[in-house]
Amino acid sequence: MLDLVRASRVPLTDQIVDGLAAMIERRQLAEGTRLPSVRRLSRQLGVSAFTVVTAYDRLAARGAIEPRAGTGFFVARRSGDAGLARIEAPLETPDTALSLARAALDLGPIAVPAGAGYLPPEWMADGLPASLVAKVARREGGLLSPCPAPGLPALREQLVQRLQQNGIPAKVENVAVTLGATQAFDVIARALLAPGDAVVVEDPGYFVLFAQLARHGLRLLAVPREKDGPDLDALEELCRLHRPRAIFMQTLLHNPTGTSISPAKCHRLLTIAERHEALIVEDDAYGDLAEPGAIRLAQIDGLERVLHVGSFTKTLSPGFRVGFVAAPAGIVPRLIEEKLLSVLSAPALPEAVIAEALATGRFRRHIGQLRRRLARARSQAGKALTAAGVQVDPDLGEGLFVWARVPGHVEVDALVRAGREAGILLAKGALFSPSGRHSQYLRFNTVHASNPVLGRFLASRLAA
């Protein structure tokens, strides 16, 4: 019936499943055909009964066969001629914020994720190894219970310690855990802002945030981002004319430019916000990758006017989706209410695993390694992009992104589409720029920017 290859790297169970599925698909096994019993097939193939049971269970889960109580397993009847259909995602060009976000999350045919916002999985493997997850899952008997709305107490305590180490005077009542930084921005907008409110964002800045705020009916005011932070004269004028309710800023390792706000600008920025009675939402999703001792707005402000948003998605695991907000104590209950109304409860296991990584020092060691690897990758990225004809600032900054300009004769939209067809994900600068001033820019992922495939593609397309 089946020929198993015992020297193959493919497990025997997989060989049985694939072999029977192929026979059913080719109609070598007709609908309603009774399959050999578990004992009989295990004798025929020389495998354990457990192996056969597992294979039958997997085929039943696919809908290829069906168990009948007391009589055995039978080939299932087909619904039309669909067979065992494979769902293919359509090829989508990342021309909008949402399509770029989708493409970065589900790479599909993409071989070079040059415009994605995540570290390669192999770079994060040592941060949360399977052994750590298994250890926490075995130890934490309450992981099947709902997670408290503010977050697991153990994680909140670890977050408070880490915030205090960064000079931010937080207590447990200042902290709410969220499903990544994205949900943090969402609950802040829902709790503290209303449709029609004006908010300041950076130009260039984080493209998903722009789409989020626009969906909430907020008016986006773009302040230019310079090498050492926002143009504060422009910010002052925007605040004077429009009285924004909130200012959204990335202090450290800005996305997409990789720059950080200077301490002097941090102080003046806080003064402007206080003078015009605006809250500041500090996006610190990449701050852990900055060198120790870096200055944050929440550190200077003491959580009086600043809401500090952090995340472990970019450094430990995109799949775990763990972030947090540190905010004035009077605001936190309102944020938790909005979290309850949107997701009710978050999974407990990811929060317990992150807490363990923080408590054992694993996260600290992992971050140190990431900083060193990124520093080497940035040097290589700058050389590779320059050689391909892309204009890169000599001061690359730090972190995960390189912000680079392509020659003026290049049509960026066409370049992005051609990249997609060649299996290369590019992120065009227009998505990061509310004003459209950065249409000739691309945001590159530091790790993938030196890929030779990308270099050859850019060199051929950018040549005059």
Descriptive account of the structure:
The protein is of the alpha/beta class. The chain folds into 3 domains: 12-75, Winged helix-like DNA-binding domain superfamily/Winged helix DNA-binding domain (Arc Repressor Mutant, subunit A, Orthogonal Bundle); 97-117 and 364-462, Aspartate Aminotransferase, domain 1 (Alpha-Beta Complex), CATH 3.90.1150; 130-360, 3-Layer(aba) Sandwich (Aspartate Aminotransferase, domain 2), CATH 3.40.640.10. The protein contains 17 helices and 14 strands. The chain has helices at 12-25, 38-45, 49-62, 97-105, 121-124, 130-139, 153-165, 180-192, 207-215, 232-242, 263-275, 297-301, 332-343, 348-359, 362-387, 412-421, 452-462, and strands at 65-68, 72-75, 175-178, 198-203, 219-226, 229-230, 246-249, 279-283, 306-311, 323-326, 391-392, 401-405, 427-428, 441-445. β7, α11 and β8 (279-283) form a beta-alpha-beta unit. α2 (38-45) packs across α3 (49-62), α8 (180-192) runs parallel beside α9 (207-215) and α8 packs across α13. It starts with 11 loop residues before the first helix and ends with a helix.
Q: What's the short story on this structure?
A:
This protein has helices at residues 12-25, 38-45, 49-62, 97-105, 121-124, 130-139, 153-165, 180-192, 207-215, 232-242, 263-275, 297-301, 332-343, 348-359, 362-387, 412-421, 452-462; strands spanning 65-68, 72-75, 175-178, 198-203, 219-226, 229-230, 246-249, 279-283, 306-311, 323-326, 391-392, 401-405, 427-428, 441-445. The protein is of the alpha/beta class.
